[in-house]
Amino acid sequence: MSTDAPAPLPRILSGMQPTSDSLHLGNYIGALVNWVTLQDKEFDAFYFVANLHALTVPTDPAVLRRRTRETAAQFIAGGVDPKRSTLFLQSDIAEHAELAWVCNCLTQFGEASRMTQFKDKVAKGQNANVGLFTYPMLMAADILMYDAAYVPVGEDQRQHLEITRDVAERFNTRFGEGGLVVPEPYILKESAKIMDLTDPESKMSGTNSPDKGLLLLSDTDSRLRKKIMSAVTDAEAEVRYDSEAKAGVSNLLVIHSALTGTRVEELERTYAGRGYGDLKKDVAEIVVSTVAPFRERMAELLDDPAELDRILADGAGRAREVAVVTMARVREMVGLPPRAV
Ligand code: TRP
């Protein structure tokens, strides 16, 4: 009989920034649902709240602290199981900033200057600090720290994954093969991209959409209903998917389809000859029945700070076990002495 230990499951890792008071339906459908599905598959999942990244945007300290805990509670409310997945706060693992420095020193200034997300933010007038500039190298450190094989993120993060791969390959070329695992992107489908209810041509965004355009996972049932009933549509009366000519109606169809699993073509048939009012009412009830249990679970978690602390401490402990091993290897390979204790 073989006594070999079973091969470890491939690791996946992803994170979200705590930059608004609540996740919205777009985060839920676009990311969280996938995280939960992946944790249930054959993966060793690591999920974290990227609160160091959030420091790139000046935020009141009390607000950042609150949002960080709320985001963690929302991951759990959305189905991330802290027993099966390692759930932690980025700031609990000091090695992230340490490895980010090594990644900075392996990145060319010109290479970092080509990051489109940075350029867009600057073009939009965001007052950029150096942290915003080096943000992709901190993200690279998050990923490389845990030998992640796959990184499930949206299309908007593709370039950051490419620079992560470049940094890892450069590290291995310079310091020796086997130093860092080169991760594969796992780009989440944009088919369920949820748009702003007031401006259905733009993505629903916690930082850019107005409150009325956002379906927050912390909204009451009546707010959700009100926002959906007043969602922008068009002057026609036909329920039909056309993301260009009928962006508002299409968005409602996408939300319906994502939450019920019914194909959009089938929904078009169901609503043939019926008005937008009917579609909106149904979407409102579907959204409410998804969000209400989520909101309750989140409230329970936030009402019991000791329990949330315990969960996060447990996750940090598991993450740290991996992080110290990676960092010891990296220090040795780049020529830094082992940490004196
Ligand atoms: N930059 C990601 C975003 O804004 C968040 C993030 C930070 C992340 N570090 C990461 C995602 C590491 C995946 C892996 O969405």
Task: Set down the secondary structure blueprint.
Layout: E1 11-16, H1 25-40, E2 44-49, H2 51-54, H3 61-77, E3 86-89, H4 95-104, H5 109-113, H6 116-123, H7 130-145, E4 150-153, H8 158-175, E5 184-187, H9 221-229, H10 247-260, H11 264-270, H12 276-303, H13 305-334
Parallel strand pairs: 1-2, 2-3, 4-5
Helix pairs in contact: 3-12, 4-7, 4-13, 7-8, 9-12, 10-12
Bound molecules: tryptophan.
Residues 13-17, 50, 53, 139, 142-143, 151, 153, 157 line the site of tryptophan.
Question: Could you characterize the architecture of this molecule?
Answer:
With 341 residues, this protein is mainly alpha-helical. The chain is 53% helix and 7% strand. It has 13 helices and five strands. The strands form two sheets. Strands 1-2-3 form a three-stranded parallel beta sheet. Strand 1, helix 1 and strand 2 form a beta-alpha-beta unit. Helix 4 packs parallel to helix 13, helix 7 packs across helix 8 and helix 10 crosses helix 12. The radius of gyration is 22 Å and the shape is globular. It starts with 10 loop residues before the first strand and ends in a 7-residue tail after the last helix. 38% of the residues are buried. The site of tryptophan (TRP) has 13 residues, from strand 1, helix 7 and strand 4.
